Amino acid sequence: MCGITGIWAFKESEQAQMEHLEEATERIAHRGPDHHATWRDQNVGLGHRRLSILDTSDHGHQPMQIMDGRYVMVFNGEIFNFLELRQELIAKGIHFHSHTDTEVIMHLYAREGKSCLNRLNGFFALAIYDTHEQSLFVARDRMGIKPLLYWQDESKLLFASEMQSLLAFAIDKQVDQQALHYYLQLNYTPAPLTMVKGIKKLMPGECIEIRNGVAEISTYYELLRSKVRQDLSYEEAKKELAERLEASVKKRMIADVPLGTFLSGGIDSSVITSIAARHTAQLSTFSIGFSDNPFFDETSYAELVAKKCGTNHTTFKLSNEDMLSYMADFVEHIDEPFADSSALPVYILSKKTREHVTVSLSGDGADEIFSGYNKHAAWLKMDQDRYFGKLTTAIRPIADRMPQSRSGKWSNLMRQVIRFDKAKKIAPQERYWFLAALADQGYAQRMMKAPQQQDDYYTQWMSPLADYQNINDMLMGDTKFVLPNDMLKKVDLMSMASSLEVRVPFLDHELVEWVHSLPVEYKINSKMRKRILQDTYRDILPAELYQRPKKGFEMPLLDWLKTALLEELDQTVFNRDKIEAGGQFNWDAVEKLRTKLFSTNPEDSHAQVWALYIFQKWYEKYF
After folding, report:
1. Which residues does UniProt mark as catalytic (predicted)?
2. Which residues is 215 bridged to in the sheet?
């Protein structure tokens, strides 16, 4: 796990940009504290920061060269089938100088070119330069677990693991108003957009090839709608799931450094932990809890799992004061506006975990592929239960008069009733966007100085729902849209800020494809979400996990914004001079949002205020 950056100058006049390569590499030092180096040719430069995981010796340093320097590579990620591929190449006469997966990829590319990506099981962002052909190959993994951003104009192509690395080069910085339009609705910016006009994210399963001075982007992998398996009984599917997930976890435990797991107390991380514990003598597990906010604290469930699995468990209990003490460092690591508030506890958990291990397994991805969210259960009711729809319509007038927010049991229930009643009345594509967003398009337009409309990107993102058949299509949308842009972005950004590698066994691409082929009723019914996952491990996990409501990994944001963070907000978000000087937002809309935040019915205003706060801090830093 590392950080990469690089430049290709199409024109001789742009070769002066090479002087920024060292700074671009240094800006992602947190991604790789163990080694750094750059490599340059006449018009090509590559930079690398290394976090040593496999073959921690000097032989694993990058940029790596093979075949007398013909191929030069920078690589971020892990390939979990590299040992099998290595043996295959040895049998063909290849001699290796290291025990890294990096060198295996390079020799595969030398023999097979772009198609070598189809052989890799893992997650990655990589760049390979061929000095003989003077060609550059850049690629991102299938699921979008690892990030890769790029800037391309008529004179150069730049790429990097994080935006702040690209901003070290001399490029024209402008806020992308279309990206801001979507950010205000979602609290994140979906690929290929970024908040800086001209910088794009490479999509999952995409690659860039530069030959003869021409750059071409293509798709080497796309998760497609699968034919539903009718030949597999539920019991057979449970058995196969256990086998596939066991293999995925086992592969992801290969490391030459200490390894542990995140353990939240939910089903997903508990399943991963229970499997991992069978393959190591003493597994270390880590949880984070909120001592001042029991409503958000789930550490008691994590401790039950740790006890049953016999792990070496550490719980990090944090007060509000503790959490707030991390705020400045946390904001500093946000390379583009990203306002999923759960990123803060993920950052703290990663920072604390890194004091003990270098690699951690997580349960990310299970909710998206197995149907674990409230919105999935709501969608099923919209499809199948007309009586429930009539009930929400009857309750709606009462709910409209009640407080609505995520910060309490009853206020959250009222919020959910209203969202359900609105969502059931709209078509699948619009319904999906409505459930994915925290604010509607009208809010974004009112907030922006330069209002935008939904465009072709919206159509592209909603394509899995264009010919809606059943909830499998919704899960496909989550896997291709929400997962890489929100959940995986959060985990990569916050873990790598602490030089911690996080591996996600649920997102082995072969496992994901198989799960998408299962019938809907194997994943969700009127009584249970993630049905097959829960049933497969019911005899292994503590019974208490099955007797508790699902909670997200959230923090007490509403209370914080109204108390401990208020002074900071008054200096950034609720500061008319700064808002008008920035030129992005309408002050009247910001002022109305502040009134909403302090009303008896805040709804999702805290999430919207948080998004503005994160944007303002980012804007102040880079603009």
Report:
1. 2
2. 210
What are the φ/ψ torsions at residue 367 (nearest 5 degrees)? -60, -40
Q: Which domains does the chain have, with CATH numbers?
A: 2-219 (3.60.20.10), 234-370+473-547 (3.40.50.620), 556-623 (no CATH)
Amino acid identity, position 609:
V
Bridge-based pairing of strands 149-152 and 156-160 is antiparallel
Task: Specify the pTM.
Answer: 0.93
Three-state SS across 299-332?
Answer: HHHHHHHHHHHCCEEEEEEECHHHHHHCHHHHHH
Averaged pLDDT for residues 490-498: 97
Cα 448 to Cα 452: distance, rounded to the nearest angstrom: 8
552-558 mean pLDDT:
72
Contact criterion met (CB below 8 Å) for 494 and 346: yes
- 274 assigned binding-site residue: no
The H or E element containing residue 422 is helix 409-423
- From residue 40, alpha-carbon distances to 15, 21, 22, 43, 307 in Å are 10, 9, 11, 8, 52
Active site amino acids = 2
Residue that has been written with the tokens 């208490």 in this structure: 544
Q: Computed from CA positions of residues 301, 307, 312, 315, in that sequence, does the dihedral angle turn out positive or negative? A: positive
pLDDT tens digits, 158-217? 999 999 999 999 899 999 999 999 999 999 999 999 999 999 999 999 999 999 888 999
Q: What is the 3-state secondary structure (H, E, C) of 428-439?
A: HHHHHHHHHCCC
State the DSSP string of 513-570: HHHHTS-HHHH--SS-SSHHHHHHTTTTS-GGGGGS----S---HHHHHHTTTHHHHH
What DSSP element (H or E) covers 130?
strand 122-130
Q: Which residue has the tokens 């391309």?
A: 152
C-alpha 202/C-alpha 217 separation (Å) is: 9
Say if residue 362 carries a ligand binding annotation. yes
- Span 139-152, pLDDT tens digits: 999 999 999 999 99
